[in-house]
Amino acid sequence: MSRIRKVYLDEKEIPRQWYNLAADIKVPPYMSPDGAVPPEAWAPVFPMNLVEQEYSTERWIDIPEGVLDLLSRWRPSPLHRAYELEEALQTPAKIYYKNESLSPAGSHKPNTAAT
Fold it and tell me: What pTM was computed for the model?
């Protein structure tokens, strides 16, 4: 039986929300020697909208239009289905990932530069 491993999304099919695992699993709080780190403690380091997303327990988080616009311009790489991982975890979930290991610059550089 042949299984489809690569999925190419049309621009209209690009997800408009991120799924937040913290809504469905217990995520321990960020800790410091003084106890749990409050969100406002990250303000000198990160924009607050990123901090709010990190601390959110909402199941779905909207992807900002500006980010969607940038992603649709230069992110044509396909999603890969992780069948073996699904089987190893014995999960009914469908797990996909983006393989950008062939990017000579490394995907983190353009992803960060686009923000």
Answer: 0.60
